[in-house]
Amino acid sequence: MSVKEDLLRNLKISLDEKQEEQFEKYYAFLIEYNKKINLTRITEKKEVYYKHFYDSLTIVQTVDMANINSICDMGSGAGFPSIPLKIIYPDLDVTIIDSLNKRITFLNELTNLLEISNVHLIHDRIETFAIKHQKKYDLVIARALGNMQLITEMGLPMTKPGGYLVAYKALNYDLELSQASACINKLGGKISDVRTFELPQEFGHRVHVVVNKVKHVDGYPRSFVKMTKNPL
């Protein structure tokens, strides 16, 4: 079974010729650029396609993408999960925040190569950007960014009321989630789903923690030092 077949069978995503070509270009450019700066330790083609591309797209099982117009990807790194989502949903308005300018440079070259628009690349600290962009996005996403308390305090203020914050997690999420429950409640969120699933071809287990924003709470996020020293 190929990744294209798995996408169709499991996620109901059908790749057209242009999208297949974009993913091929994405892979080739990622591997070449990875020789200059460390973007990923996963370089074998099949692993990249499943552990990065396919994994990024699993959110379609968790969130109804038909209702999502704007997304913010916190600490995207090499563009996961937002660039694969942008390839599948070209009308999405995407904002990517990363504190390392080398990664922003990579993403700028990548989006030019893939000929995709409405991708806003922000070189900034997430908490600095978030305090100035409250209630702005339908969906805020984080993959391999940090603990759930940190993700919540940085991401939920940027989420529109009625929107979603989704954290991509590994299976050992239980303790982290229990520690973050007070923070989620304080910031006007509610855990609406915790979805566990397996990647095809035995490429591992994944979890999506879904927080629905019920109401907006002003004054957050705090500084990084305060968030880490005094978690909510």
From TrEMBL:
Name used for this protein in its record: Ribosomal RNA small subunit methyltransferase G
CDD domains linked to this entry: AdoMet_MTases
Main location: cytoplasm
Originating species: Peloplasma aerotolerans
A Pfam short name: GidB
Keyword Flavoprotein listed: no
InterPro entries: rRNA_ssu_MeTfrase_G, SAM-dependent_MTases_sf
HAMAP family assigned: 16SrRNA_methyltr_G
Binding site for S-adenosyl-L-methionine: G75, F80, I126, E127, R143
Family: Belongs to the methyltransferase superfamily. RNA methyltransferase RsmG family.
Top-level taxon: Bacteria
An example Gene Ontology CC term for this record: cytosol
